[in-house]
Design a protein that fits this description.
The chain is an alpha+beta fold. Helix content is 55%, strand content 9%. The protein has 17 helices and nine strands. The strands form three sheets. A four-stranded mixed beta sheet has the order 1-2-4-3. Strands 5-6-7 form a three-stranded antiparallel beta sheet, with helices on one face. Helix 5 (107-122) packs across helix 8 and helix 11 runs antiparallel to helix 12. The longest helix has 37 residues, at 154-190. It is globular and about 65 Å long. The termini are far apart.
Length: 455
């Protein structure tokens, strides 16, 4: 089988290998001092050039990447990210003059496109896609070799293998484009641009002659209907978020409660909506367990079980949801769950805020040492003469059938894993540790899937 396997592997890998990226010959580097040369040589509107420079600067700064900015004399409505590690200019964003004419001075639409392209670079899509292509090539080649050994015709098997490889690769491409859409939306909004830019661009693009071509399952990008619909959903969520933030900052609990009810009805899987639901419940003195449940939902949705993680991760509320949950669990007196929750805090300032808010300082942060040792920090805590040690092993949770355990959910029936084996009491387990402890807090509270907005 080996003589057959290797040639096919080489063919399939070569078929989908990423082509060497290069800046087209009709492109030139842009900087604030050479805009007039583009106006003279290519007739580009100076205001459009200044807008492009501003959009690029604001979004690249927020993304933490600094690609070179190029302008291409090309009527096509397009922009691209060039990622060539080791080259003289390893990262480049190239914008066509046709794109500038298409958006016609609309900075929000340009920011949506620019954010998308810069997201490709910040998410390392070229390297990740190449790795995925190689993994799929090995799988397809193994299937091909097995088929040939079992008597299938080599030519037919090879054609099937190539077709399978292309369809898999296109699926990888479309997933990368969805990620870039989500992260690009977040980058544009964080940079201060209006959240309607992506929707307006996709709707406008949909009316062009080129966009009306019949979509194919071999397309490298998701369909425009999908992209327009999801960007509209993100836009709606951001509009709700801004209104909720204003109501919260004004300490207007009635307005916040009414607003969050409408928000949850419109975008039920929004992490920010669940976060402000928790803040409303806290402001109005509702039961602490209800507050914790709202923050649990917020953290879960921000983790990617609701709106995409990449479209939400730059929101202030995404960071505050975990801290608020830890504080709320501490107020409930659920010490073990609080420790597990603290593993979610990514910043030392958040840990210190927790200490200030709760007055509990008797725990020690043990950072992981290198990648692969622990996905999250480990904590050791001491209370009086008792010590709780958290390790980095999940086999206990697996043995008890606790799949995808979320450490703070084991307390409430219907919101997390089932209880332990027959005859044993409910256990509190952390999916990243070996330690499970019996739950001795009385009967678990009934599940409450949505906050109660009592007037």
């Amino acid at each position: 089988m080996r003589p057959l396997f290797l040639p096919l592997l080489a063919v399939v890998a070569a078929l989908l290998a990423s082509p060497a990226q290069a800046v087209p010959a009709n492109c030139r580097a842009m900087d604030p001092g050479n805009h007039s040369s583009f106006e003279t040589a290519w007739g580009v509107n100076l205001a459009w050039l200044a807008m492009t420079q501003d959009v690029y600067q604001r979004i690249s700064s927020g993304a933490g990447v600094a690609p070179a900015l190029y302008l291409c004399n090309d009527p096509a409505i397009n922009a691209l990210a060039v990622d060539t590690p080791g080259g003289p200019q390893p990262r480049i964003i190239a914008v066509n003059t046709g794109l500038l004419a298409f958006v016609n001075g609309d900075a929000d639409q340009l920011a949506a496109v620019m954010g998308h392209e810069i997201a490709h670079l910040s998410l390392r899509h070229r390297a990740r896609k190449t790795a995925a292509y190689e993994a799929h090539a090995h799988e397809v080649a193994r299937d091909w070799a097995r088929a040939v050994v079992r008597g299938s015709r080599s030519r037919e098997s090879t054609l099937r293998a190539r077709f399978e490889m292309v369809t898999r690769a296109r699926a990888v491409d479309r997933d990368a484009e969805r990620e870039a859409d989500d992260k690009g939306f977040s980058l544009a909004v964080s940079a201060g641009f209006n959240p309607d830019g992506a929707r307006k661009f996709h709707e406008k693009w949909f009316q062009t002659q080129e966009a009306r071509k019949v979509a194919s399952y071999l397309d490298t990008h998701p369909g425009l209907g999908e992209r327009s619909g999801y960007s509209a959903r993100l836009e709606r969520n951001e509009a709700f978020r801004r209104d909720a933030e204003r109501a919260f900052m004004a300490r207007d609990s009635r307005r916040l409660g009414n607003h969050v009810e409408r928000w949850i009805a419109a975008v039920p899987d929004s992490g920010a909506a669940a976060y402000y639901a928790g803040m409303y419940l806290l402001m109005t003195g509702k039961r602490q367990s209800l507050v914790s449940e709202a923050f649990e939902d917020a953290v879960t949705f921000f983790d990617g079980e609701g709106l995409s993680r990449l479209s939400q991760e730059d929101q202030y509320e995404a960071r505050m949801a975990a801290l608020s949950l830890c504080v709320s669990l501490h107020k409930e007196g659920k010490r073990q769950l609080t420790l597990n929750c603290l593993q979610r805090l990514r910043h030392s300032e958040d840990v210190e805020q927790f200490r200030v808010a709760t007055g509990w300082r008797d725990f020690i942060l043990v950072p992981s040492r290198g990648e692969g040792v622990s996905a999250r920090p480990l904590y050791a805590a001491q209370e009086g003469e008792r010590e709780v040690f958290l390790t980095n092993c999940s086999h206990v949770a697996k043995e008890r059938g606790m799949k995808d355990v979320r450490s703070w959910r084991g307390m409430r029936a219907g919101r997390g894993p089932a209880s332990g084996a027959a005859g044993s009491g409910m256990m509190i387990c952390n999916p990243h540790t070996c330690d499970c402890e019996p739950y001795e807090g009385g009967d678990p509270e009934p599940a409450v899937r949505a906050p109660r907005f009592e007037r």
